[in-house]
Amino acid sequence: MKRLWLLFSQTVTVVVAIIFVVATLKPQWLNQRPTLTSMVPVFEAPTLGLGDATPGSLRVAARQAAAAVVSINTSQSPATNPHLEDPWFRFFYGERNSAQPQTGLGSGVIVSPDGYILTNNHVIEEADEIQVTLNDGRTAVAQVIGTDPETDLAVLKINFTELPAITWGNSEQIAIGDGVLAIGNPFGVGQTVTSGIISALGRTQLGINTFENFIQTDAAINPGNSGGALVDVLGHLVGINTAIYSRSGGSMGIGFAIPTSTARQVLEAIVRDGEVVRGWIGVEPQDLTAELAEGFGLKPQSGVIITGVLQNSPAASAGLRPGDVVTAVGAQPVAKVSELLSAVAALAPGQASTLSVTRKDERLTLKVVPGQRQIERINRPR
Length: 382
What we know:
By secondary structure, the protein is of the alpha+beta class. Among the domains are: 167-273, Thrombin, subunit H, CATH 2.40.10.10; 279-372, Pdz3 Domain. It is built from 9 helices and 22 strands. It has helices at residues 2-25, 36-39, 59-66, 87-93, 121-124, 260-273, 290-295, 314-318, 337-345, and strands at 69-76, 102-110, 116-120, 129-133, 139-141, 143-148, 153-157, 167-168, 179-184, 192-203, 214-217, 229-232, 236-244, 255-259, 279-280, 283-287, 304-309, 325-329, 332-333, 353-359, 362-368, 371-372. The protein has a 7-stranded antiparallel sheet with strand order 5-4-1-2-3-7-6. The protein has a 6-stranded antiparallel β-barrel with strand order 9-10-11-14-13-12. β20 (353-359) and β21 form a beta hairpin.
């Protein structure tokens, strides 16, 4: 019995000694547990390639459009102090002109591999130098090809070739609720992409431009985004970001973009002619409300009422009178003032067209030869 007890004691002593040595030198041997992978199979998501995207992601659209969006920096020389020529002024205040150069910030969209860039007129207006920074970091001094203050658009040119031009979309086919991305350089922090939806279409009478037909979006647009791209979920250009409604100076979810239907017409006219030439007939139009119709003794109808006709204007020569209701310009029906302005502006100066008019209960077709519209300057808040 003593032998058995002695053997048991020695065995326990040896085992304890082995455990002590192992716990001291290799403690991890005592802490091994079955891993999750040995118990339950784990399915990992595949690594995404550069051309892939997770469901609902807009990375492909952002990548496709971002390369064509540029940053625009402008500078304007300070005005010279007129008193610097006065010797007494120089004696008391010195000869230094304390005024600092004015700088501006905006965005633009490359619309041609040859270096044509579309942006807002207010971004480059009165600038002495315009510097464009591409998404790949290259910079160039831009030349102004032409501007159109009445739509707040401008066309620039840089001396680069084989540039990544934006793919044009069709702003006539977009609808409220469609997803969009706004791409630009807000506050100068660098190229930024924000997302939202189209909130409204055909916004007019905002007092921003003479010719207004804005796309409204809740994609965040901030100072510096002006002239940047509004693209659809395929990365196709549908608008040029232009303005925001804001009480703080930052985005409040109400931004406005010029649709490509307008931007493309302006771009082609400026590249072809150096300017945008529009028709003019010399009238003061108003939307035909029930009150105006009653005041002029008219039946409720669709059209634009003429409340004034400029003397010796094309409209006066055509026989148009105050109280007439214009229902169509050429073959294009008009129901609002914005539609009438756009239809008349599209007429070629000097080429006769027709106006469909309702005068009391009589329907008339008047022949009008439009003149050339003179540019109206708008005092735009900066």
